[in-house]
Every structure is written in C-alpha cells, then in structure tokens.
Amino acid sequence: MLKLNTLAVDASARYVIAITSVEELESALTFARTRGLEWFVIGAGSNLILASDFSGLIIHNQISGREILSDNGASVVLKAGAGEVWHDWVRYTLRQGLAGLENLSLIPGTVGAAPVQNIGAYGEEIANSLLSVQVYDCDRSEVRTLSAAECEFAYRDSLFKQQAGRFVILSVTFKLCRYGAPGGHYDFNLSYQPLADLTAKTPPNSPQDVSDIVCAIRREKLPDPQQIPNVGSFFKNPVIDVSHFERLHHEYPSMPHYPAQKGVKVAAGWLIDQLGWKGYRNALVGIHEQQALVLINHGGGRGADILALAQQVADSVFKQFEIQLEIEPVVLGGSSVPGHSSSRFEPGR
Ligand SMILES: Cc1cc2nc3c(=O)[nH]c(=O)nc-3n(C[C@H](O)[C@H](O)[C@H](O)COP(=O)(O)OP(=O)(O)OC[C@H]3O[C@@H](n4cnc5c(N)ncnc54)[C@H](O)[C@@H]3O)c2cc1C
C-alpha cells in the first residue's frame, strides 16, 4: 500500500482491486463477500492512515468520466466520475470559465472522496456547489442518486462518514456558474483573510485568477506529499462553548477564533503551535516546521507511530486548554484513535 497513501505508510493489504465501472465494483464486492473478507474503498489515499496491515480487500476507485448534463448559458450542470483527480477536475471547470470550485483548487485526492469529508478550503466547501452524488448502496445492492440535502454535509463530515462501509461513490454532479455570463451573477468568496489581502489591490477577473492565487498560497504553506509524506491538516478545528472560549480568550487575547453554529471555532494549528510542537521530530515521524497542523512521516514511520504522536499532541492540548482535538483523516485498522474521533472507519462486510 506504500504508493496508495500519501503518508507513505508501508502497510500491506491482502488484496487490492482497481475498479473502473459499477460492474467491476459489483464483482469486487462479490469477490470479498464469497471469501468472507472485509473491504474498504480508497481514492488517492490522501486522507488515510493505515494503522495496521489489512487482511481484506482494498477497492481502488478509478471510475473516470466527465460529462456536461445541461447548460443554460448562465449555469452549467456537470458530472465527474469518482476516480477523477480532484484538481484536474477543478482545472477542467476553470478552462470552461465556470465558477464555484476555484477556492478548492489543488486539494489532493479524487472527486469520489471529496464529498466524504465535505472537502473545504479558503471559506468554501464542496457542499456549496454539489447537486447530487451517485452511489452504490451496499446495503440495498443498488445504484442510487442522493441529493445534496440527503448527503447531510457538515464541517468535514457527511452521511458517507457517518455510515462508513455502506456507500461507494460512483460520480458527483455539480452546478456551477458561467462567470460573466449575461443574466448570471457570481461573487467570489474572498472571505479568507490572506485571499482578501492578496486580491485587495488587484481584484480577480476570473475564477482562474482566484484559483491561481489559492494555488500560490497552498504551494507556499503546505508541504507537497510527494516530497514530505503527509495527509494535510491532521486535526479538525474544534468548536468550544462560548463560556469556555471567553475564559481562554481572556488569557490568550490573540487566539484566532471564528463564529460557529454552536459555540466558537478555534484554530487547532494555533493551539498546537502555542505548545511548541512545530518542527518536533522523533526518529520516524514529526510535525512540519511551518505548519503545526501537519504531521509528517520522515520515512519508515508506521500508522501507529503517527497516531502515537497525534495522541501526544492531543493530550498536551487538552492539558493546557481543556480542548479535545479530533483527528481529520480516516483511520483504517489499529486500536486507538486520539480524541473522541469519528474517523475510525469500519470496513464494509
Ligand atoms: C497536502 C494535503 C492538503 C490537503 N488539503 C485539504 C484541504 O484543504 N481541505 C480538505 O478538505 N482536505 C484536504 N486534504 C485531505 C484530502 O486531500 C481530502 O480529504 C481528499 O478528498 C481525499 O481524497 P482521496 O481520494 O485521497 O481519499 P482517500 O484518502 O483515498 O479516502 C478518504 C476517505 O474517503 C473514502 N472514499 C474514498 N473514495 C471513495 C468513494 N469513491 N466512495 C466512498 N468513499 C470513498 C475512503 O474510504 C476514506 O474513508 C489534504 C491532504 C493533503 C495530503
């Protein structure tokens, strides 16, 4: 599995099958079921921690395809196969002058995994432009279309995380705006401060302009997993209640915070940084020098090593701030996951 996860964990799986169609998916599921094997679907493995070897079947989703379903000039409905590379798909929409996905440029992974944790960056989430998701429902053994509302999107969460092992995403349908089309109207989302600062002097003229800026910020801030194995942000930004926040804010007036539906969201990276973890390393794994939120594999680190470090970080944050961090990537196998995490994925059976 070394090449199938961006954390470069050298775990093994008993079987790996690549699928390119729903028929191949059904064959793979039959293969697993007739042998009593657990199964687990992956895309690019960029949000995955292999905590142990896997004695079941890994289904590597490679269902491709891009299709324009309707176009009324101002808005366009288009569909992408689950195995398409996310950033290639974003670039394809930008080439057609379509707006909606520009803030989500350069996020690693596949289209099919994007709804699973409702990928988000720079003030946007896929939920804002997603129309529906075509899935294979393994409980009912049938292909279904789920509307955006049925996907139960929330911050880094969705029905697909809540009911892990039930749905395999086959394709995703988006509704995007044609930027500048007569009768159409679209406002760029520049709410993220560095994006606002960089566009203050020269406002963007196209979704491509915004994408270019997002890519430049990301390249500067985030390590390329090809060079430094990682899974991006390791912890979710915690939401704490207002009285807890007020106590902390009194003590740490510079603490970054954002309004949330139930309480106040605080920046996990800032909490970790306060405790001096940035740049920490042990023999195998560590924390990125510029990004306290990014755990990295220095080579030879196993999933258990990464999770042990994550536990140390989470414990220290809890001790200092009484905030329980929850990890963002999905954990396959192993026995302990830091925090009260919803990230442990039960494989399909
Ligand atoms: C450098 C870096 C930066 C990142 N930045 C961001 C960011 O800004 N925002 C963000 O939200 N994420 C970010 N991520 C995390 C990651 O890119 C996303 O979560 C991405 O959507 C994962 O895609 P994947 O194909 O690699 O999924 P995988 O890691 O292969 O799988 C992730 C989960 O999705 C499930 N899954 C995958 N494909 C399917 C399918 N077809 N059907 C059903 N379930 C499926 C898997 O079972 C697993 O539970 C970053 C990661 C890295 C390495």
From TrEMBL:
Alphabetical keyword list: Cell cycle, Cell division, Cell shape, Cell wall biogenesis/degradation, Cytoplasm, FAD, Flavoprotein, NADP, Oxidoreductase, Peptidoglycan synthesis
Enzymatic class: oxidoreductase
Record has Cytoplasm as a keyword: yes
Cited InterPro entries: FAD-bd_PCMH (IPR016166), FAD-bd_PCMH-like_sf (IPR036318), FAD-bd_PCMH_sub1 (IPR016167), FAD-bd_PCMH_sub2 (IPR016169), MurB (IPR003170), MurB_C (IPR011601), MurB_C_sf (IPR036635), Oxid_FAD_bind_N (IPR006094)
SUPFAM superfamilies for this protein: FAD-binding/transporter-associated domain-like (SSF56176), Uridine diphospho-N-Acetylenolpyruvylglucosamine reductase, MurB, C-terminal domain (SSF56194)
GO molecular function terms listed in the Swiss-Prot or TrEMBL record: FAD binding; UDP-N-acetylmuramate dehydrogenase activity
CC per GO annotation: cytosol
Catalytic activity: UDP-N-acetyl-alpha-D-muramate + NADP(+) = UDP-N-acetyl-3-O-(1-carboxyvinyl)-alpha-D-glucosamine + NADPH + H(+)
Keyword Protein transport included in the entry's annotation: no
Cofactor: FAD
Chain segments annotated as transmembrane: none
This protein's pathway: Cell wall biogenesis; peptidoglycan biosynthesis
Alphabetical GO biological process terms: cell division; cell wall organization; peptidoglycan biosynthetic process; regulation of cell shape
EC assignment: 1.3.1.98
Cellular compartments annotated: Cytoplasm
Family matches, as Gene3D superfamilies: 3.30.465.10, UDP-N-acetylenolpyruvoylglucosamine reductase, C-terminal domain (3.90.78.10), Uridine Diphospho-n-acetylenolpyruvylglucosamine Reductase, domain 2 (3.30.43.10)
PROSITE patterns reported for this sequence: FAD_PCMH
Pfam families (UniProt xref): FAD_binding_4 (PF01565), MurB_C (PF02873)
Active-site residues from the entry: R156, S233, E328
FAD-binding PCMH-type domain location: 9-179
Record's signal peptide: none
Family the UniProt entry places it in: Belongs to the MurB family.
Function in brief: Cell wall formation.
Protein name: UDP-N-acetylenolpyruvoylglucosamine reductase
Lineage: Bacteria, Pseudomonadati, Pseudomonadota, Gammaproteobacteria, Oceanospirillales
